[in-house]
Amino acid sequence: MPTGRGCMVPPPQEGRGETIRHESGTPARADAGTDTVIALLQQLAETIGTRYALLGRIDPDGVVHASTVSAGGAVTTGIAYALAGTPCEQVASGGVCVYPRGVSGLFPGDALLVSMGIESYAGIALRDVDGRFVGLLAALGTEPLHRRARVEPTLRLFAARVRAEIGRIDAESALRASERRLRSRDAILAAVADASERLVRAQRWSDVVPEMLELVGRAAAAGRAYLLEVVETAAGTCSRLAFEWVEAGVTPPASDPLLHDVPVPEEAVARLRRGEVVHETRATAPAPVREACGREGTMSALLVPVIVDGTLEAIVGFDDCEQERRWQPSEVEALRLAAGALAAAAERERAIEGMQTRERILEALAAAAERLFRAASWELAIDDVLALLGRATGASRAYIFQMRAVDGGVASTLTHEWVADGVEPSLRTGIWTDFPEPPEVLRLLERGEPHLLRRDDASGAVRRALEQEGTLRAISFPIISERGLLGEIGFDDCVRERDWISSQRDALRAAAGIIGAAIERSRVEAALRESEGRLLQAQKMEAIGRLAASVAHDFNNVLTAVDGYASLLREELTGEQRRFADDILEASSSAHDLVSRLLSLGRPCPLEVVDLDLQLLVREVQPLVAGIVRPHVDLSLELAPAAVRADRTQVQQLLLNLVTNAVDAMPAGGTLRLETGCDRARSRARLVVADTGVGMDAATRERCYEPFFTTKGEGRGTGLGLATVYGIVMGLDGTIELESEPGAGTRFTIELPAA
Question: If DSSP states are collapsed to H, E and C, what string results for 306-375?
Answer without folding.
Answer: EEECCEEEEEEEEEECCCCCCCCHHHHHHHHHHHHHHHHHHHHHHHHHHHHHHHHHHHHHHHHHHHHHHC
